[in-house]
């Protein structure tokens, strides 16, 4: 299978937090593609951490299992990848209501930051896949993935950055700009954007959305690079 985010390789050091404009936009696929780009450019110890995995029972396959499968299909040796979850909740909902249904406390942001720092001690690259979009509450104390990214940045002496994954379809420009605005307002270092589920036959709408997203600039004038598009079907047996 191809390597859709190979151009992002130089950014892939330390901690890369993968968030999205919404749920189901392709964060897990993007996480796998980022790990593959890291592997292809020489990283040999890569970890994927999912702070809160909702919508799964204990024996089910979660997002980190999907990343492991995609990397295995791409030919990455199993020993390169470490997968870890903070906690699992059964309901397919945001963490606070899902934890209430399972009657368990949510891990704190400090808990997640400690686990990520521990992974960073023996990995070159730690990818962290958030739940849902940027402002989804992770911990029952009104903290979100941007807060977690900032906390990790204060705790570790390594690069920490965020990748925003969005859809290529109608409505994505508003969602992408809103999400970037929320990230920048919180002082997060944004590495760039990714478009998931890129169609094999893109329409003018998809192409104009991609071109617009490729030209987004932060308030200080710096470019917010589009790191790549992930073809719909990437990673499936029949796909590229
Ligand atoms: N590049 C892709 N190729 C194939 N299917 C995709 C792709 N990106 C997303 N999908 C589809 O969208 C669903 C959600 O993608 P996923 O990466 O799990 O999103 P998220 O992690 O943001 O919830 C997948 O189960 C799959 O059906
Ligand atoms: Mg996911």
Automatic annotation (TrEMBL):
Q: Which cofactor does it need?
A: Mg(2+)
Q: Does the keyword Cytoplasm apply?
A: yes
Has the keyword Transport been applied to this entry?
Answer: no
UniProt entry keywords in alphabetical sequence: ATP-binding, Biotin biosynthesis, Cytoplasm, Ligase, Magnesium, Metal-binding, Nucleotide-binding
List residues binding substrate. Answer: 54
Q: Which InterPro entries match?
A: DTB_synth_BioD, P-loop_NTPase
- From the record, give the transmembrane residue ranges: none
Q: Name one Pfam family in it.
A: AAA_26
Catalysed reactions, semicolon-separated: (7R,8S)-7,8-diammoniononanoate + CO2 + ATP = (4R,5S)-dethiobiotin + ADP + phosphate + 3 H(+)
Locations listed in the record: Cytoplasm
Annotated pathway:
Cofactor biosynthesis; biotin biosynthesis; biotin from 7,8-diaminononanoate: step 1/2
**Subunit details:** Homodimer.
The family database entries (HAMAP family) matched by this protein are listed as: BioD (MF_00336)
Task: Please give the family membership noted in the entry.
Answer: Belongs to the dethiobiotin synthetase family.
Provide the function of this protein. Catalyzes a mechanistically unusual reaction, the ATP-dependent insertion of CO2 between the N7 and N8 nitrogen atoms of 7,8-diaminopelargonic acid (DAPA, also called 7,8-diammoniononanoate) to form a ureido ring.
Question: What protein name does the entry list?
Answer: ATP-dependent dethiobiotin synthetase BioD
Q: Which organism is it from?
A: Kocuria atrinae
């Amino acid at each position: 299978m191809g390597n859709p985010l190979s151009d992002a390789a130089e950014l892939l050091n330390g901690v890369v937090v993968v968030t999205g404009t919404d749920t189901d936009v392709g964060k897990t696929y993007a996480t796998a593609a980022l790990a593959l780009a890291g592997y292809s450019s020489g990283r040999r110890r890569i970890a994927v951490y999912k702070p809160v995995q909702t919508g799964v029972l204990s024996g089910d396959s979660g997002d980190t299992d999907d990343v492991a499968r995609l990397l295995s299909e791409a030919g990455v040796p199993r020993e390169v990848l470490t997968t870890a979850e903070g906690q699992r909740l059964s309901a397919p909902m945001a963490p606070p209501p899902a934890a209430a249904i399972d009657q368990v406390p949510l891990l704190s942001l400090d808990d997640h930051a400690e686990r990520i720092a521990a992974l960073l001690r023996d990995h070159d690259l730690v990818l962290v896949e958030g739940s849902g979009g940027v402002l989804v509450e992770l911990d029952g104390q009104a903290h979100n993935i941007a807060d977690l990214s900032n906390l990790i940045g204060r705790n570790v002496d390594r690069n920490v950055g965020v990748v925003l994954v969005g859809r290529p379809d109608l409505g994505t420009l508003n969602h992408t700009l809103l999400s970037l605005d929320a990230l920048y307002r919180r002082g997060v270092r944004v590495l760039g954007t990714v478009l998931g589920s890129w169609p094999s036959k893109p329409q003018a709408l998809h192409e104009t959305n991609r071109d617009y997203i490729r030209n987004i600039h932060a308030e200080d004038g710096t470019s917010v690079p589009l790191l790549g598009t992930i073809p719909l079907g990437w990673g499936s047996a029949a796909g590229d």
